[in-house]
Design brief:
Blueprint: H1 3-23, E1 32-37, E2 40-45, H2 48-66, E3 70-79, E4 82-91, H3 103-125, E5 139-146, E6 151-155, H4 175-181, E7 186-194, E8 199-206
Helix pairs in contact: 1-2, 1-3
């Protein structure tokens, strides 16, 4: 993936994680500031260690995303050790090595990319429609799914930020299978798009759908 496209994608995923934590109420709304991205008002956590954790996770994953080894990044929300929701950012196996090298083409493609990311952020801001509120004292972690390892790597994150080292772990290896097989989880489509240089799909899986009347 070209450096400019990679930077845009990582910026988008980082901003989306902050937005999901705000939208789903993992932390109090008082802990978030309103800022602007893609000419859109977005929410960003202001706690330095939380921001640092998210930024360090994305920075660590950059190489794997660039090499296409990492196909999914997910925000996994848990309550008392049980997964209640998962928000997934998926890069499809398409030609994402860039265009033919024309600067104008690159500029046009990045503009289109940013427009698509803007739409996705906007959809994430309303992704809680029809969902129950999360129970109190939820925790979250950022999980990467690697193509070459055929396993997931997680960055553990208790409710108020442990001092544990960031790194790959196998302790949550079965969670993707658990979500895929458990019919209690409902798919929450957000949006996807496909360009010459990148293909992206965002969706949620939740057990907290509000029953229809």
């Amino acid at each position: 993936m070209k450096s400019a496209h990679l930077d845009c994608y990582c910026e988008f995923v980082e901003a989306s994680i902050h937005q999901i934590l705000f939208t789903r109420g993992v932390y109090s709304s008082e802990l978030f500031d309103r800022t602007r991205l893609y000419n859109l008002a977005v929410h960003r956590a202001r706690h330095p260690r939380l921001c640092g954790y998210i930024r360090e996770c994305i920075t660590t994953l950059k190489e794997g995303i660039a090499s296409h080894d990492i196909t999914q990044v997910a925000v996994v929300i848990q309550h008392k050790g049980n997964v209640v929701e998962r928000w997934v950012f998926e890069i499809s196996d398409t030609n994402i090595d860039g265009l033919g090298g024309d600067g104008d083409d690159d500029h046009s493609d990045i503009k289109k990319l940013l427009d698509n990311f803007r739409t996705l952020i906007l959809r994430l801001q309303h992704a809680d429609h029809g969902l129950q509120a999360l129970p109190e004292d939820c925790t979250f972690e950022i999980v990467a799914y690697a193509r070459t390892l055929h396993e997931e790597g997680s960055f553990s994150h208790p409710q108020w930020l442990s001092d544990g080292d960031l790194g790959l772990s196998r302790e949550h290896e079965s969670r993707a299978a658990e979500l895929a097989q458990n019919r209690a989880y409902t798919l929450v489509p957000v949006r996807g798009f496909k360009q010459e240089t990148i293909s992206c799909q965002v969706y949620g899986e939740t057990s907290l759908v509000t029953p229809s009347l």
